[in-house]
């Protein structure tokens, strides 16, 4: 029988956390391993969240609670959970945002779809709080642009090009070959898009699962054309952690799937946008870091993490059969795996 791990990244909001955990505990298919990765930076608030979450530990087969030493962003939080899930022998990994609310049979229907198909990523149908469908994923157009799709197109079951994290189910084989989210390049947002491009280059596909329904806030409206030439910024603590989304997300798409001419044009336009952001008040961009990122992208190199992950775990606790204990072995394993950039790309660190 397959083992399923559920990963949720936590950050501050107790109301959202409660709504998600209630929905997770009510799933018609049991969760074998619940992994909670807490990114809350404030100590007193983090303690409150842990105490609250501990009341849910008995509702799952086994729970692993990972408290990070700082807010490293959703990309690192998911990467920690993905490493832990693979280390613990999970066959399927279910990724969740704390503001998502899966229908009671969401996980069951995702697993049915995954077990009947090839290894890959299986995406639930996203709905807003009015239970209306909206395109939370996208296909890639001929110009490298992002193209949303209709509900009928989603229901057709045809593979899609790019997924968003909320509620997706990933086969173990995908992570063994393609690694985890790229937390050295992304902080919040974009890590799922880059991962979509990466797994497709490794021969895996992304499949819609129309019978699995996942409620998530709708942050954007449908657009006919979204070009890949755009700029995003990510912030770590009070220090600016700047990465152009084109560099490690859209650039990968253009470089792999389109002509060199289009790649260079997109690259130059995106670089020009970065200079505009630097010149334009309030000039809140670290130009030196951004230039290093551009250089790494152009030379197809992995750029080093902008922060030190050597002591990235505050504590790691495991709950099973009513007992809660410190898991020093998992803590050591994660503190070895996360600083190793090779682990991002599928070179798993050895277990401790």
What does this structure look like?
The protein has 352 residues and is of the alpha/beta class. The protein has two domains: 4-119 and 164-191 and 308-345, Spore Coat Polysaccharide Biosynthesis Protein SpsA, Chain A (Alpha-Beta Complex); 234-298. It is 36% helix and 20% strand. The protein has eleven helices and 14 strands. It has helices at 14-25, 43-54, 73-87, 106-115, 151-155, 172-178, 191-201, 245-257, 260-279, 287-298, 328-337, and strands at 4-10, 33-38, 63-68, 92-97, 101-102, 120-127, 139-140, 146-147, 169-171, 205-215, 234-236, 239-241, 313-320, 323-326. The chain has a ten-stranded mixed beta sheet with strand order 5-10-6-9-4-1-2-3-13-14, sandwiched between helices. It has a two-stranded antiparallel sheet with strand order 7-8. Strands 11-12 form a two-stranded antiparallel sheet. A hairpin with a 5-residue loop joins β7 and β8 (146-147). α7 (191-201) packs parallel to α8 (245-257). The longest helix has 20 residues, at 260-279. The protein is globular and about 60 Å long. The protein starts with a strand and ends in a 15-residue tail after the last helix. Mean pLDDT is 79; it is low at 222-246 and 348-352.
């Amino acid at each position: 029988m397959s083992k399923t791990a559920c990963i949720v990244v936590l950050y501050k909001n107790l109301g959202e956390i409660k709504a998600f955990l209630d929905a997770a505990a009510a799933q018609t298919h049991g969760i074998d391993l619940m992994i909670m990765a807490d990114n809350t930076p404030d100590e007193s608030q983090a303690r409150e969240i842990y105490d609250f979450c501990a009341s849910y530990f008995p509702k799952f087969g086994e729970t692993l609670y990972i408290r990070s030493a700082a807010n490293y962003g959703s990309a690192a939080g998911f990467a920690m959970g993905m490493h832990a899930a693979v280390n613990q022998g999970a066959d399927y990994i279910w990724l969740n945002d704390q503001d998502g609310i899966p229908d009671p049979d969401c996980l069951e229907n995702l697993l049915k779809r995954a077990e009947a198909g090839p290894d890959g990523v299986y995406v639930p149908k996203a709905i807003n709080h009015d239970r209306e469908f909206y395109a939370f994923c996208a296909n890639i157009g001929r110009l490298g642009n992002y193209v949303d799709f209709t509900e009928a197109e989603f229901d057709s079951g045809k593979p899609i090009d790019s997924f968003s994290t909320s509620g997706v189910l990933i086969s173990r084989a995908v992570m063994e070959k393609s690694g985890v989210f790229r937390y050295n390049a992304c902080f919040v947002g974009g890590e799922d898009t880059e991962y979509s491009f990466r797994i497709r280059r490794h021969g895996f596909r992304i499949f819609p699962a129309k019978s699995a329904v996942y409620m998530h806030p709708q942050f954007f409206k449908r657009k006919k054309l979204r070009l890949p030439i755009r700029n995003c910024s990510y912030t770590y603590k009070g220090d600016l952690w700047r990465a152009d989304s084109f560099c490690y997300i859209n650039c990968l798409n253009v470089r792999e799937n389109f002509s060199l001419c289009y790649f260079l044009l997109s690259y130059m336009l995106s670089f020009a946008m970065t200079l505009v952001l630097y010149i334009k008040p309030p000039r809140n961009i670290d130009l030196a870091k951004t230039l290093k990122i551009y250089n790494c992208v152009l030379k197809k190199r992995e750029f080093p993490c902008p922060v030190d992950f050597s002591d990235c775990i505050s504590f790691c606790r495991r709950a099973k059969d009513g007992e809660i204990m410190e898991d020093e072995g998992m803590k050591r394993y994660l503190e070895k795996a996360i600083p190793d950039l090779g682990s991002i790309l599928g070179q798993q660190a050895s277990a401790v």
